[in-house]
Amino acid sequence: MQRVPHANPSGPLPAAQARRAGALRRLPSHSLSGEAAVLKVTAYVDGASRGNPGPAGYGVYMTTDSGDIIEVSGYLGTTTNNVAEYSGLLEALSIARAEGATDVEIISDSLLLVNQMLGKFRVKHENLIPLYKKARGLASYFPNFSIRHTLRAGNKEADRLANLAVDRGEGRFVERHRDDL
Known about the structure:
This protein is an alpha/beta fold. It has helices at residues 15-21, 81-98, 111-117, 129-139, 156-168; strands spanning 40-49, 54-64, 68-79, 103-108, 144-149, 172-178. A hairpin with a 3-residue loop joins strand 2 and strand 3. Helix 2 packs parallel to helix 4 (129-139).
């Protein structure tokens, strides 16, 4: 598992010093739903675009350490696959923050997205720069954040949700349920 490098080249600041510097924000002790905070989430993210650019959507399949599964699919209109990939990442990070997560693992089949977030690839395309900056900003809220690549076969649920969004052609849909197995 690869960790995203911190902006501070000497490593992360001690928590108290970082809070004073404004680098960390205190997370709520409860999620927006009022339940006890989730500590760890794992999110599979994907984007789909038919035509590139073309009708596009994103999918997020998230599991929490409390056994919840959160599935999100969102339609984006006409855009590129890379914008759709970043949209899935941003959705996952926003939900994780709302849930009060402290440990976030992102899994994506987009090598571009993963390597840009890890600082291995530069973000060159002007449409991706603001999305990248927003994603890095959201990722900085989590004391433990990691992102890694998987093959497409390892990302089937997020892929299904992204394509479902394109098929529907409208809206954002969220489903939350419990893993009762």
